[in-house]
Hints:
This protein has three domains: 7-120, Butyryl-Coa Dehydrogenase, subunit A, domain 1; 124-244, Butyryl-CoA Dehydrogenase, subunit A, domain 2; 246-383, Butyryl-CoA Dehydrogenase, subunit A, domain 3, CATH 1.20.140.10. The protein is 51% helix and 15% strand. By secondary structure, the chain is α+β, with helices and mostly antiparallel strands. It has helices at 7-23, 26-33, 41-51, 69-81, 88-102, 105-117, 131-134, 244-280, 292-317, 322-343, 345-348, 355-369, 372-383, 393-398; strands spanning 122-125, 155-159, 166-176, 183-190, 197-204, 210-214, 224-236, 282-283, 286-287. The protein is globular and about 80 Å long. Its cofactor is FAD.
Amino acid sequence: MDAAFTAEQDEMRRTLREVLAKRCGPAEVKAAVRTAAGHDPGLWQQLARELGLPGLAVAEEYGGVGCAPGDLALACEEAGRVLLPSPLLATAVLAVPLVTALGTAAQRSELLPPLAAGGLTAALAVPGPALATALALAGDNTGGEWAGGGRAGGVQARADADGAGWRLYGEAAQVLDGHSAALLLVAAHTGGFARSRTLLFLVREDAPGLARTRQSVLDETRPQARVELRDVPARLLGTEDADVLGALAGAGRTAAAVLAAEAVGAADQALARTVEYVREREQFGRSIGSFQAVKHRLADLYVQVQAARSAAYYAAWDPAQGALALAQALEALRVTAGEAIQLHGGIGFTWEHDAHLYFKRAAADELLFGPVHRLRAHAAQRAGLFAPPSPTRSEKVAV
């Protein structure tokens, strides 16, 4: 493994940081999230047109840049630094890998070019608060219980009588960018108990019977929506025998590595702003940053953020370690954001202070993709670290 960045990667990070510094300050973020789209469409198009951001991990044959997931992680680290509100996560990190893995040749040719160009945005809709389970991050996604499990609830799918299409009914909440995405990838259960399985379906924003409502959320930089489907026509993504659960788990591993890098960027910026503040804030005739107790707290935060960065970069190279890297990065962000509020003193406790943007991101990401202890527990379970103990001699005799 070569941990050094290439010249192209360094240039991409530098350019992206410059653009976001000009267009995505705290005031611009707060204004963008309160618009109908939940982000700045002009900035999104600029990032797509000039930097090819949504197409970083899309193959060149479909109009993408053809980079590895690690490059997308580096870009998201810069996006996390400013808490960029954009369709990047929902479209490029969640939807694109699923279309690539499951879509037919015709579907890939139809969908990937506009997704890579930023003209088409997409969102993954899974029933209930089950995104972390569906992506196999905080639990096993086999069995499909999170998608309805053949019972009432979740989203159900039935084939048309002529077999030409499908109809969906049910609802999904907490859909990232679900209120504005032009294309929905809906996980639905079909087959009842006889042929129980979970499939992914494509639903356009203008489909009859589709209703989308933007939800009030803790972190406004991650807009979420409730999606209701009432006999909605849909197209199957791929084929009926596709390994949907495997594709979701694969997308989850990559998403975890990208989210870890994004959380590291946010934690690093929260720490940098705190260091800048304690250098300027004076008490008893000297800056509070000169006090030994403050220095120790900041040093501990620095070590935690750097450890999380190392884990995130390793996961970008080996996505199989994504869940553990995500756990470490989310913990680092939570602790750093909390300390940022503390070290900003009285002004830091005001709800309008910029430090709360990072604190909300930390709390909301744990709710969506964690929590941290479940990420670690599931990773340990898959690794077999907590195998059942061997029976004692008395237990063997009893048997």
